[in-house]
Amino acid sequence: QVQLKESGPGLVQPSQTLSLTCTVSGFSLTSYNVHWVRQPPGKGLEWMGVIWSGGNTDYNSALKPRLSISRDTSKSQVFLTMNSLQTEDTGIYYCNRNLNYWGQGVMVTVSS
Amino acid sequence: DVVMTQTPVSLSLAIGQPASISCKSSQSLLGTSGKTFLNWILQRPGQSPKRLIYQVSKLYSEVPDRFSGSGSETEFTLKISRVEAEDLGVYYCWQGTHFPLTFGSGTKLEIK
User: Fold this and answer.
1) pLDDT tens, residue by residue, A71-97
2) What torsion, rounded to 10 degrees, do the Cα atoms A101, A107, A109, B2 define?
3) Hey, is the C-beta of B100 within 8 angstroms of any chain A C-beta?
4) Nearest chain B Cα distance for residue A74, angstroms
5) What residues in A contact B50, CB-CB < 8 Å?
6) Does B99 touch chain A (CB under 8 A)?
7) Given the DSSP bridges, would you call strands B19-25 and B75-80 parallel, antiparallel or unpaired?
């Protein structure tokens, strides 16, 4: 059974760094790609980036200067790191397998 | 970036009525592989998105056959032959032909 679960701090201060973990089960990270998508409150979806099964990454150019995606295949975990957070980064952050299987999402609030 | 334009913004339909949602892209979504990576997902209230249709018209196995997708190049349509109560939520089209992946702004389906 394919499952993904996001975890991380619910509250981040402005200008600080966000670190999220996506723990997967039911598939191997070396066989499938994992994407990150976020959703501001009451708004639509924004693709952030992907770590390919081979380990390479691609990012949304709007976020690229601040964003990094990595993984630990031994732990079946994918990591998202984004720095210089601002209030507009508030939202639900989802990891998903090729936009087919989605995690439940984690709410991140950027506030002092 | 490819802009995805969805209409209408919202629909209010009685159970048993048909539904139609349009999705238009600013560029052709026909890829060099000959495939068109236009997909549909549904986000029910308070839930993460769920997959519906891939490559314009292919239903995932768990999706009821009252759903159908059609279109080509830059114009696409999602249809529900007879709306059921479980169909309520926000429908998004998204394209995977060009990077970055981009989403439509969503169509909210309400049940009268």
Assistant:
1) 999 999 999 999 999 999 999 999 999
2) 30
3) yes
4) 26
5) 102
6) yes
7) antiparallel
